[in-house]
Amino acid sequence: MRLSDGEKWWHQQKLASYEFSTKVLRDFSSVVFLANAAKLVAKVSEAATSNMKINLQELLMKCTLASIFKVGFGTEFNSLSESDEIGYQFSKAFDDANVSFYWRYVDPSWKIKRMLNIGSKASLRINIKVIDDFVLRLIRLLNAK
User: Fold this and answer.
1) Contact yes or no for 63/40 (Cβ under 8 A)
2) What residue ranges in 11-126 does DSSP mark as E strands?
3) pTM of the entire structure?
4) How do residues 72-107 score in pLDDT, each as one tens digit?
5) Is residue 55 left, alpha or beta, with left meaning phi > 0 and alpha meaning psi from -120 to 50?
6) What is the CA radius of gyration of the chain?
7) pLDDT in tens, 124-145
8) CA angle 54, 57, 60 (to 5 degrees)
9) Contact 67, 36 (CB under 8 A)
10) Residue 124: how many CB atoms within 10 A of its CB?
């Protein structure tokens, strides 16, 4: 059911389409990715000046995840900060779930493990629950705004 019909509906759709254009998305994404890249550079610089070892792959993944969350959900995801425990749990579950999916291609027994809920498939179920809980919490938070 539409709230308006005919010419009025067409006009509303035309106005809304400008908000979701490729250019608007590209411009917003660029701002978000640049801001998170600056945070990443600060982390790397801090580690370099203090002669501290870092896991660059992990930091790059966190930076990408933070950017995608801001662009996709319109909310900050402090994955570059170790102080956000819920964000850390989500990131870890997300990474571990990706590893589990990878192993499907090289582990011929993955279907048996899934059926028996053992090994990597048991871990995958736990990780998916963490991811689902996080996303549902985020949806509730966004709906409350």
Assistant:
1) yes
2) none
3) 0.60
4) 877 777 655 555 677 778 888 988 898 888 888 888
5) beta
6) 20
7) 899 999 999 988 888 887 777 6
8) 100
9) yes
10) 22
Which tokens belong to 98? Answer: 């990706």
Residue given tokens 């996709």 in the structure block: 72
In Å, how far from its chain's centre is CA 80? 12
Six token digits for residue 40 = 């990443």
| Position with higher pLDDT, 102 vs 20 | 102
How far, in Å, CA of 119 to CA of 117, rounded? 7
Tokens encoding 72: 């996709």
C-alpha to C-alpha distance for 98 and 123, rounded to whole angstroms: 11
How many C-beta neighbours within 10 Å does residue 41 have?
Answer: 11
Coil, helix or strand for 99? Answer: helix
DSSP category for residue 9: H
Residue 94 amino acid letter: F
